[in-house]
Specification:
Blueprint: E1 4-10, E2 15-17, E3 24-26, H1 31-38, E4 44-52, H2 59-71, E5 76-80, H3 86-93, E6 100-104, H4 117-130, E7 134-139, E8 142-144, E9 149-152, E10 157-160
Parallel strand pairs: 1-4, 1-5, 5-6, 6-7
Antiparallel strand pairs: 2-3, 7-8, 9-10
């Protein structure tokens, strides 16, 4: 892998909660700092294009994500994204045929102790380096085909469909 392009769209992974009585805000992308702290041995760039909960990502936003990735010279792309509509965005990105694109996120904010963010990012980094061109989702310790996965909101995890 020459260079990893990371596209940040917001989602729970970047949420900041101030106290139990307040709402959240989507903060700065956490992934760059996490990768630097972990001492990864590959170059990466982080392109923050949205700061939205995925429930608020529109079709126009998905086109912006697709166009941003298409414009990058990198063949390996990791997208941090909210989990609720990650599958829909992955399906839009399927039109990009010459890149390996892996979407990941977290079910609890990266700032929280015990968050799944670091584990999901590690899974996604391994996947983006080893999989053939295509679009994938890395969540819950697995690599998913976006056409065959859904988020089970009640169980708070991803699961196979069909």
């Amino acid at each position: 892998m020459d260079q990893l392009c990371i596209v940040s769209t917001g989602g729970t992974i970047d949420k900041i909660y101030f106290d139990d009585k307040s709402d959240y805000q989507i903060g700065e992308p956490q992934i760059g700092g996490m990768l630097r702290e972990l001492g990864v041995s590959f170059p990466f760039t982080v392109i923050p294009i949205l700061r939205k909960d995925s429930l608020h990502i529109s079709d126009d936003d998905r086109e912006l994500i697709r166009a941003t990735i298409a414009a990058q010279p990198a063949r390996h792309v990791l997208v941090t994204h909210g989990t609720d509509t990650m599958v829909e965005t992955a399906r839009v990105l399927a039109s990009l045929k010459d890149k390996t694109i892996v979407l990941t996120g977290a079910l609890s904010p990266a700032r929280f102790r015990g968050s799944d963010a670091e584990f999901n990012i590690g899974t996604a980094v391994g996947a983006v380096q080893s999989l053939p061109p295509g679009v994938y989702i890395a969540m819950n310790g697995r690599i998913w085909d976006p056409a065959r996965v859904r988020k089970n909101v009640e169980a708070n995890r991803f699961e196979s469909i069909g």
